[in-house]
Amino acid sequence: MNExxxxxxxxxxxxLPNELWRMLGLVLARGLNENSQxxxxxxxxxxxxxxxVVAKLIFFPPGDLASxxxxxxxxxxxxxxxxxxxxxxxxxxxVFVGVMAGEAILVGAGLFYGx
Amino acid sequence: MGxxxxxxxxxxxxxxxxxxxxxxxxxxVFVLVLAGTYIGIGALTHNLxxxxxxxxxxxxxxxxxxxxxxxxxxxxxxxxxxxxxxxVTLSAIRLFPMVVALMPVLRGPKTRTRELVIPTHFxxxxxxxxxLRILPSLPFARRVAFCNGLxxxxxxxxxxxxxxxxxxxxxxxxxxSAALLFITPLxxxxxxxxxxxxxxxxxxxxxxLLLAPLLTYFQIGLDLMWTGVxxxxxxxxxxxxxxxxx
Lengths: 115, 246
What we know:
Chain A is an all-alpha fold and 115 residues long. Chain A contains four helices and no strands. Helices cover 76% and strands 0% of the residues of chain A.
């Protein structure tokens, strides 16, 4: 690949397929209700894809994350999520709390296993 | 909500309104979320051998963390470009209803459509949530400028922390670099869960978590597309059949 290839790929398979939906929203903004059936379905598809990406990053991780054992990655994500749920019910900054809890478990267990 | 619209904010010029948008963005909790997310993406970019400048341009052009993560990991794994484009576009469908919901808040009687192109381009969770919360308390003539201030500040934050993550990952020991890479799945999982208020969204969330590793394990092509289409459609069908609350 030459030097320009990553930028061409960025435009063609990153920017354009992503921007399409925003511009469609601008063009078609009149007449669609936030609770219409097509909007509900598209939100469900997008949600499943998002958590699909999450699961892939945990089960088939890139780079240095792969050196942490699978059990630790899954356990850390589960503890982080439990902390998020607890914080969600108590205070508002729940995402921050959950991320910090998951990170603490990952780093703590990583040190323990000496990865 | 009601307290915001009862206090009308008046800004003398569009520039003042823009600056107020920048200030409002930089003091919101989303700066922390974006910083964490883009440090993680920066680390990912570095790990997969892509330049931090490439990431900066992708942030300005795409400004959607899920699409960027899909693009970066797929390029790193050498997936076929057609599959990457499909996965990116499916992850971006959610932007469509967001833009549809934002436009009535931005469009005043004198607003021209071309003024709405920049807010449309930068529509993302952070900007969208803050726009819907704050814009109703502004006169229509100042809303686009304020919204552009939010957009520039959030996108600028993302670009800066992408560089930070990329350079940090280059110099850190493996365990800390792993911790940076772990920010993305954690923050995605929890911000998705926080936005999933209806049963259909929660069902889709769980189905996505289960389907993607299975499809990947069995090496089914277009795994993310099928995760979205199967998981989303199952969640939607269950919602229809059981008459769950939207």
